[in-house]
Amino acid sequence: MDPKLETLAASAFDNVYHVGHLVPDLPPAMQALADAMQVTWAPPFEMRSGFTRPDGSTDDQTVRIAFTASGPPYLELIEVVAAADSIFAEPRLGGMHHVGYYAQRWRDDVARLQDDGWELERTGAGVAFLRDPRSGLRLEVVSFKGRDFLTQILSGEMAARYPLTERP
User: What spatial distance separates the first Cα and last Cα of the chain, rounded to whole Å?
Assistant: First the structure.
C-alpha cells in the first residue's frame, strides 16, 4: 500500500478480519450458506452481549453467533435479536450489519472516528460499534487483545461453554 494512503486509513485494511451479517434464524442460515458457499462453520454459540449505549444504559441481550471456520475474512452470522432497541435488531429480515477490524489502540481509533463524525452506538469489553451517518456503514472496532476470543470461537470452546438453546 502507498504509505501516503496508509496514513489516511482508520486502520490497515489487513486488520479487517470479519464481516457481520444478521440472519432471521441461525441454524437454517448456516446450512443454506454452507451449501451455497461451500463453507464450514465453527460451532455456533450464544452469549450475553454486555454492551453499553452512549447514554450509559445497557444493551445486554442474548445473542446467537456463528463464524466460518476459515478466514480471514471470516463471515460472522448473528441471529436477529427481537428486542427493538438491540444493536442486533435491524435489519429484521437479515442483511449486512458491520465490518470488524482489530485496532492496536482501539479507544484512540474510536475517538478519532467520533472526531470525524462517526456516531458511537455501543461499547463493550474491548469493542465499540460506530456508524458513519454519511455512508450508513457500521464498524466494529476490536482491541487486538480480542484475538484470543476469536481463537475460542474457532476452537469450539465458546460453543462448549455457551451452547445454543432451543428456540420455540
Answer: 50
pTM, 2 dp:
0.81
Closest C-alpha to 100, from 130, 62, 59? 130
Tell me which amino acid residue 161 is.
R
pLDDT computed for residue 80 by the predictor = 93
Please determine, for residue 166, whether its predicted confidence score (pLDDT) is greater than 60: yes
Distance in angstroms (rounded) separating the CA atoms of residues 66 and 44: 4
Instruction: Name the most confidently modeled range: 7-21, 89-103, 108-122, 133-147.
Output: 108-122
* Ranges assigned E (strand) in the chain: 16-23, 45-48, 51-52, 58-59, 62-67, 74-79, 95-103, 119-124, 127-131, 138-143
- At residue 1, what is the residue type? M
Rounded Cα distance, 14 and 20, in Å: 17
Give the model's pLDDT for residue 50: 95
User: In the beta sheet, which residues pair with residue 77?
Assistant: 21, 66
Neighbours of 13 (CB within 10 A): 12
Closest CA to 152 of 43, 73, 22: 43
| Residues whose CB falls within 8 Å of the CB of residue 135, separated by 6 or more in sequence, listed in order | none
CA gap 53, 43 in Å, rounded:
29
